[in-house]
């Protein structure tokens, strides 16, 4: 399955704006974060917020083929 | 009925407040509204004894625009307002330039002022907008409401 990862703010320094990955089997959001921390040295602080297709996702949420995953820190608008 | 306008602006996009106020007050045919509150955020030129050269705002645009509108609708209902307008700028902004405009219109300052403040607090927490501070002492990612991480890496290529 294919997943598109988009990152913002501090995480974009590690991941770039967009990464596409292909996986043999489905994984959870938590497993994806572990993979990104190991592969891209993604920092564990600040704690990333993950949005899937625009909605905030939980760590145990299963990713699906074609998902767009956003990796972001706490928001800082205003 | 409540008038809602909520959108993201590019840094160069002009807002004419007099025109906006005129448009909103013209909607009030019976003159039942007694107050219109406005908050305008500005880029600070100095922080922690460092000079700020520029702020750069990015956003998950499609999500942010939707959230701004949801917040505007919620606040309109909660405070029984007749209008809520939220504009948030993106892109590169210099000190003194505007970052956000919030306008609330209703019967009295007793509902428009707290509504305006609640919009701002909700925008800070609920809208996926991100801030990079470029200062005389380095670049800092602003995380949440004011925690800063010094930028140590150059951006990875996409």
From TrEMBL, chain A:
InterPro entries: Beta-grasp_dom_sf, Mopterin_synth/thiamin_S_b, ThiS/MoaD-like. Pfam families: ThiS. Transmembrane segments: none annotated. It comes from Desulfurococcus amylolyticus (strain DSM 18924 / JCM 16383 / VKM B-2413 / 1221n) (Desulfurococcus kamchatkensis). SUPFAM superfamilies: MoaD/ThiS (SSF54285). This is MoaD family protein.
